[in-house]
Specification:
With about 425 residues, the protein is an all-alpha fold. Helices cover about 75% and strands about 0% of the residues.
Length: about 425
């Protein structure tokens, strides 16, 4: 145990391997990001938006349930074993997407994808937090989510480009076979379990255990509850963007390549942005990061209904991506900051349960409103929900980190004041 050290620098090799593995994990979601709604309409003649979005509903529910159990399973069987199991479950996915004879097979592939994502992404998140210890959690999560969502963007763009040039099936999904093989081989041969790092941190940790971990994480604990509701709303609007953006852009007669660019840009800014926002989450008050991130998402969605050119969609997708980049690593860093190491995997699992239920809820709400009213009405409704979520964070959360800088004060140049001796000192969150 004495040779086990916590920190990003001390564990950079294992951390780098996990970042690369999570890139392959994100790529599996990117397979569907830009072309699956087109497959529903063109190959299976599905017109109703609710039916088209059924694959997201199933994916969200299955991934959410898997996330919940992943925390308990990680503590019982080990993080690495969970990661490897997730990749084995992912093996059939690209083959089903290539050769599915009807939409029910696509739904089945998304059941497997939900389990794959729940096990693999949860494992890489928890293992990175285990490795870095108390410091640099935000930066660690920024790197993790950067790798995952940049891969979502790259694969979404590539599948859109391949579909536009060579057809919707089967060629775009050949990428999935490569991703599964690389992820599985890397997880088996190069990833090491992090249980000893958890034991090391537990010996010096002073955070009390949660008494009722499910309800504390869900709502009762003001910081954890605020993060959990925001996570749900964030993925709710992401589920809407995933399903509706391609349909909306196709309805405006944009090409598959243009649709691929817009649908890839949002997760690209989201992914690359986390290289910066993860580090920011270690410096600035997490409440400020979460409020501003959700607020920017809301503004982007509300203005999206007025967009009438590809430039408008590019700008608003970028703002939406940056807002998401501000909150995504901050969510996980906040949960880790507010939980004991022995509670962490389970609390993250509960947070991710609610967060990924947002995919399903967003797809259901979006589909119903789009079918009954219009796509613009669905986008406006989701934008208003996102705005409301940002206000809950503003009113309910506290900045617990004594060394975290209030972002608004820093932006306005007011992050200094004087102490009783008349000397300047930095203003921190209380």
């Amino acid at each position: 145990m004495d040779n086990i050290k916590l920190g990003l620098k001390e564990n950079w090799q294992q951390f780098t391997i996990l970042v690369i593995i999570n890139g392959f994990v994100g790529g599996m979601v990117g397979l569907e990001r830009s072309i699956l709604p087109q497959i529903a309409e063109k190959e299976f003649a599905i017109a109703a938006k609710t039916a088209i979005l059924s694959f997201i509903i199933v994916f969200g529910i299955i991934k959410a349930i898997t996330n919940y159990f992943a925390g308990t399973l990680a503590n019982k069987f080990g993080r690495k074993n969970l990661l490897v199991a997730g990749w084995f479950i992912g093996i059939p996915i690209p083959f089903i997407l290539m050769y599915a004879p009807d939409w029910n097979w696509i739904i089945g592939a998304n059941v497997l994808l939900g389990i794959n994502q729940g096990l693999t992404w949860s494992s890489t998140v928890v293992m990175k937090i285990d490795l870095v210890g108390e410091k640099q959690r935000g930066f660690a999560m920024g790197l993790n989510e950067f790798a995952g969502y940049l891969s979502v963007a790259l694969v979404a763009f590539l599948t859109g480009w391949i579909a536009g040039n060579y057809g919707i099936r089967p060629y775009p999904f050949y990428l999935g076979i490569i991703l599964v093989l690389l992820g599985l081989i890397g997880s088996i041969f190069w990833v090491k379990d992090t249980k000893h790092h958890v034991t090391k941190e537990t010996s010096s940790n002073r955070i009390p255990r949660l008494k009722k971990i499910f309800w504390d994480t869900t709502w009762k604990n003001k910081n954890l509850g605020s993060v959990t509701q925001a996570g749900l709303i964030n993925n709710l609007n992401d589920g809407m963007a995933w399903g509706i953006f391609p349909i909306m852009l196709a309805g405006k007669n944009y090409t598959l390549e243009q649709i691929g660019v817009v649908t890839a840009l949002y997760p690209a800014v989201w992914g690359i942005g986390q290289l910066f926002t993860g580090k920011m989450a270690d410096k600035f008050c997490k409440k400020d990061m979460l409020f501003l991130g959700m607020f920017l998402q809301a503004i982007a969605l509300i203005f999206l209904i007025q967009a009438n050119s590809i430039l408008h969609f590019v700008i608003l997708s970028s703002i939406l991506g940056w807002g998401t980049a501000m909150v995504y690593p901050t969510f996980l860093a906040t949960v880790a900051e507010n939980t004991h190491p022995q509670d962490r995997a389970k609390s993250i699992g509960i947070f991710r349960l609610w967060r990924d239920l947002g995919y399903a809820i967003g797809a259901i709400l979006t589909g119903i409103i789009a079918d009954l009213v219009s796509i613009n009405a669905a986008i406006l409704f989701i934008g208003c929900l996102t705005l409301f979520s940002s206000l809950i964070i503003l009113l309910r959360m506290k900045c617990d980190g004594k060394e975290s800088v209030k972002m608004l004060s820093w932006v306005l140049g007011k992050n200094t004041n004087t102490n009783k001796d008349g000397n300047l000192k930095q203003m921190h969150c209380s």
